[in-house]
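Action item from last week, closing it out:
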Amino acid sequence: MVAEQSGIKETIREFISSSINIAGVNDDANLFESGIVNSLFAVQLMTFIEKTFAIEVGPEDLDIDNFKSLDAMTAFVLRKLERPNAALAD
């Protein structure tokens, strides 16, 4: 699980770094408060996460706490991957 977690985090980090040309983003840095992520980029980030990890970001997932940092996004992806059929139960 640790290898999977670090792979997810690095994939997201690479997308952020290549998209907004910033290096050295701390894992727990609040990307919205720091101004690194704005609302337009947040949509691009959610789309990237959906496509890359083959998960669905539903309306119930649209909580800033799920996307505010690399740690938060990694935990979100891991939760979604653990419950692949959760959306079918709704």
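Closing note: Residues 86-90 have pLDDT under 50 and may be disordered.
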